[in-house]
Amino acid sequence: MTILLSSGVDRKFLGRTALSFVLGACLLNTMVPHALAQTRVMPEMTEAEDQPKSILFPAGVPGPYFPSDEEIAQAAEERLSQNPQNSDVQTGEVLVPEDELVVVSELDNGDGSAYGTIGQRESGLAKTIWQPSEFEKIEKLLGALNLPSTSPVMDDIARKLLLAVATAPTGEPLLEEQQSSLFSGEEDENVRRDQPAAFDEKLLKAFINLRLKKLIERGNLVDLVSYIQNLPEGTMEPEQQNAEILMLGGDLIGACQMTQDARRASTERETQINRFSAQTETEPDTENIFWLKMVAFCRILEGNNQGAQIAIDMLNEQGNIDFVFSDLLGRLMENPETRGSFLSRGLTSLEPLNYTILSLLDQTIDADLIENSSPLITSALVINPNMPPENRFQAAVKSYESGGVSAELLRNIYGLREFTDTEYNNAVRMAEYDARPVADALLYQAASKQTNDFEKAQVLEAIWKRALENNDLPRKAALNVDTLKSLTPASRLFNHAHHIARGLILAGETDRAVEWYNFVRRNAASGDAEATRALINVWPLIILATDRGEIPWSENILDLWWNGQMVLAPENRDSKAALFYAAAEAFDYPVSDIKWEELITENRSNKVRSIPLAVWREMIKSVGENKQAQSIILGLIAMGKDGPGSLDPSGISTIIRMLRSFGMEKEARKVAIEALVTNDF
Fold first, then answer.
1. How far apart are CA 559 and CA 563, in angstroms?
2. Counting CB atoms within 10 angstroms of each CB, which of 100, 215, 353, 533 has the fewest?
3. Residues 582 and 448 in one domain
């Protein structure tokens, strides 16, 4: 790696060069003919004849089920029950390419009051989405939100919140004009003119840094580099984590400039500490140690080896002797032509500074360090040219599981693995006895290389089985989407139709999934038993995944689906029905009292949990006060590390209604699908 530190080098150019480097490296036999004649095909997003009953806020329920503020609870109920049919965002259409980076100045007419990298058309979130909340409240809630998330839909929601072009949370309620244009897909020009020209620049910078911390925690280096690339001057605070992200993003000049600022402030702080240290013993200043290490590192980059040695001596004098770091710096000061190799197994952990030096030395990274690395470093390891293929594969798998790298990148990594014809031909059998990620790569390649659709489907079934065991079906579906799309509906695939349609839905290919639904529906109408079974399994997923009204819903169809669940154990059958009914009602599909009364039993699953009461109360309160971003963060906290599938039916219904009330129709449907799939749909 070559680093240019000439004073004439343009930092913007280096930032974009670093970014370029980063970017390069998923009805029934008896319903026909008489049942279909009674089926009501719902027109596109029409208002229901009767308001859907709410299972979240039943009237007259006493005790702690309601927040103490009855007015807020009532306002929340009205908002959560409304049909967002007038929102352009509810169609789920992306009006601009998802990978297109938005220039902030073009979005905000250069007013400087907002910052982000994705605009309203892509995110569906208004510039003022954070405004009604207070900064201190948002800071506290983001601190309680654990990232990264293994749930793709949760990661997508968090990404949009953190990267959307937005103003700072000021605690000021939205104006009527701002509320009317919140989710119209494009911000209204009149609202822009009504906004005051002046804004709290200090608050905005604090808000940018707050989101920056969560982006670092999320661990996607590509998104992070694009976020910091055009930051307003002086926005990034001179903190250790900010210097580390500059290094990981390739901006060593920026990291060294930040070091100078931080060291200057640290020197002043040291003077005050020294005056006090004569009377009181002080703990080692870990931040000061880091900045001294950075001073030594930056001086070497400048060619000032003597100055670097002075900084190392200062560290040693303080008793902070780091032999590994000293060895790394010593190698960096040597002549590249005669420089020896450094064995990274001498490291116990991989910190950004040591990782950066190893990269400059063109040294490999020991595989044992990968599993203990932070999500952000793991993301960086995937695109490190010094990584051996085996280690890069290990880092890519780990990073993909937490959303650090894209499915496309992991597909490329999977494609680099080499297997024999014997391994391809026996992939399914071999994978049964091999839980390692390399078996996933073998199955991926084996599925994509098959020329016969039936054989492809058999390999995919093995992939789904492994994914379900690890609660990772949504990501595996996205990974194998090309193979899924290559399959053509055929009668010999009836037994696989459910799994194929489910995979297509999870991968975002709903139109292709509808083709499979229509295919099995036509054959079920002819009395085919296998097609009927497939239709029973596919229908609940299709009805919740689509929003165009072409999938029929009626009491007769619901009865037929319920009859198809009688083969299950009572607790599994009732739990599945409760989850499906709750999600369906949240999307305005009517479920009769008779169907709910059938579930008044003691049969229940122990796999799900309810939303913590404190989180539930705060979320309902936030919805009632029209605090969009705050409500969405609380929804993410409610779903937790195990994703939407871990919530009970009332919890899933709450999340769906909350997202829909703010125009996030696409995300609400993804939450519903993930929840159903996790619970054996």
1. 6
2. 100
3. no
Written as six digits, the tokens of 276 are: 């006090």
Residue 258 near residue 243, CB atoms below 8 Å: yes
Q: Which amino acid is at 401?
A: E
CA separation for the pair 152, 136 (Å, rounded): 28
Give residue-wise pLDDT tens across range 156-166.
999 999 999 99
- Report the run of H or E that residue 21 belongs to, with start and end: helix 11-24
Residue 674 inside a domain? The answer is yes
Distance between CA atoms of 14 and 6, rounded to whole angstroms? Answer: 12
Which of 251, 260, 210 lies closest to 230 in space, CA to CA?
251
- Given a contact cutoff of 8 angstroms between Cβ atoms, the answer to whether 26 and 673 are in contact is yes
The Cα-based distances of 406 to 166, 413, 478, 610 in angstroms read: 25, 11, 10, 31
Q: What does residue 465 show for φ and ψ, rounded to 5 degrees?
A: -60, -45
Domain that holds residue 592: 27-91+488-681
The token pair that represents 562 in the structure block: 């319920």
Cβ proximity of 174 and 114 under 8 Å? no
Q: Which of 343, 329, 257 is nearest to 300 (CA)?
A: 329
Helix and strand numbers (H, E) in the chain are 36, 0
Whether residue 396 is contained in a domain is answered as: no
Contact assessment for residue 84 and residue 661, using Cβ atoms and an 8 Å cutoff: yes
Rounded-to-integer distance, Cα 224 and Cα 545, Å = 31
Sign of the CA dihedral with 322 first, then 327, 328, and 332 last: positive
Same domain? 614 vs 569: yes
Neighbours of 461 (CB within 10 A): 15
- What are the tokens at 484? 């899924």
Tell me which of 36 and 296 has the higher pLDDT: 296
Q: What does the alpha-carbon distance between residue 207 and residue 135 come to, in Å, rounded to a whole number?
A: 8
Same domain, 677 and 580: yes
**Cβ distance 344 to 369 under 8 Å?**
yes
Q: Token pair 């790696």 is at which residue? A: 1
pLDDT score for 122: 86
CA angle in degrees (0–180, nearest 5) for 252-256-262:
140
The strand ranges marked E within 28-99 are: none
Report yes or no: 56 and 647 within 8 Å, Cβ to Cβ: no
- The token duo for 679 is 């619970």
Helices (H), 302-406: 305-317, 323-333, 352-360, 375-382, 389-401
pLDDT digits (tens, 9 = 90+) for 78-98: 655 555 444 433 333 322 334
CA 240 to chain centre: 25
Predicted TM-score (pTM) of the model is 0.80
Q: Is residue 65 scored above 50 in pLDDT?
A: no
268 class by beta-carbon count within 10 Å (0-12 exposed, 13-18 middle, 19+ buried): exposed
Q: Are residues 192 and 266 in the same domain?
A: no
Give 73's pLDDT tier (boundaries 50, 70, 90): low
Which pLDDT belongs to residue 8?
Answer: 37
Place of tokens 């009859």: 563
| pLDDT tens sequence across 230-275 | 788 888 888 888 899 888 888 888 899 999 888 887 666 666 555 5
Domain closes at, from 387, 422, 449: 387
The CA distance from 491 to 530, in Å, is 9
Asked if 331 and 367 sit in the same domain, the reply is yes
CB-side neighbour CA atoms (13 Å) of 588: 24
Q: Supply angle C-alpha 84, 89, 90, rounded to 5.
A: 45
